[in-house]
Amino acid sequence: MPSRILDFPVFDADNHLYETPEALTRYLPDHQRGAIDYIDVHGRTKIAVRGQITDYIPNPTFERVGQPGALEDYFRNGNPEGRPYRELLGRGIDCPAAFRTAEDRVKLMDEQGIDYAIMLPTLASLVEERTKDDPDLTADIVHALNRWMLDEWPFQFEGRIFSVPIITPGLLERALDELDWLLEQDAKVILMRPAPAWGYKGPRSFALPEFDPFWERVQDSGIVVVLHASDSGYTRYINEWDGNQREMQAFSKVSLFLSSVHGQHRDVQDAVTSLITHGTCWRYPDLKIALIENGAGWVPGLLHHLDHVYEQMPQQYEMLPSETFKRNFFMHPFHEEDPRGLVELLGADHVIFGSDFPHVEGLADPISYVDDLAGLAEEDVHRIMGGNMMRLIGIEETVPA
Prior knowledge:
Number of helices: 15
Low-confidence stretches: none
Helix content: 25-40%
Strand order of the largest sheet: 9-12-13-14
Structural class: alpha/beta
Number of domains: 1
Radius of gyration: 20 Å
Order of helices and strands: EEEEEHHEHEHHEHEEEHEHHHHEHHEHH
CATH class: Alpha Beta
CATH topology: TIM Barrel
Mean pLDDT: 93
Shape: globular
Strand content: 5-15%
Number of strands: 14
CATH architecture: Alpha-Beta Barrel
Distance between the termini: 19 Å
């Protein structure tokens, strides 16, 4: 049960679903059959992409999952006793129906005191990095997943759950077709990974002018773009420093170097820098981009640095980078971060609440985040806990019956 029920609308901008094994395969075209497979490895089911087993997510069937919020205290207070990671995680649970279906999730949201939620896929983040050299396959898998979501997690469910399909931007025409299809299905939010787009000629930023037709359509539609933490491919840089060839893994023992560098969130910083300095946000000033589950500690330093570069060459800019950021981006801080500094920097109308439920690193009781906003003006608390996301999505400020 929640710690309390609030007397104003609550919109959780970071909820997750757990996919079933057919999520990536049900709608794969015949010529791509076998690109994604589930295989038994010493009694454990693993996912294979083009015959290559991946440990990115150790239990890709999600029949057993971590207890929601199992690592909440770890992220808030650290691990002063140096307990092993597995001990911190504790025992898993059988995956509840509320993590698998929208109908059951709405019932759980009622119990939690959550009025609205963005619902993000979990397994999906492994796809693009592992198929980046075959952009047609990437686009096929992404479309297959989006079609599965439409079956199992409609992009709007009872006006309360807004499930988030994926756009992979590497092939512009296919990205435009996917966006048009998603708009026809009443999607309100799309998910993109903070990483270069991979096309036939390799990687390049999705903020370069060649992608302007996509961003123009995004702006004209009013749809919200979510940049969510993902496997952005940056592990290759870690590998060069660590001297190994590992893939990114969601839950595994990590090197001290990896854990130190990963927390800097270089991938989303680079994505934001590109969207500003390559001019996308200037050419399309009405874009709405939500940065979800990327932390917020890096924001002041990045904006200070970008503004410093601006001072050296203002003739190259349309406006101050920090002002561009404050106009186009909406920031979701981690629950362990103090949000007050971010509110002071960006304004309360650009900070959003997300619990990362039901992941282990999220909040077991999502509504409890309101305690972290103590001391802010009442209207600012209302904005952060729900009003800002309602405005972005286009929901009138009424609480569901």
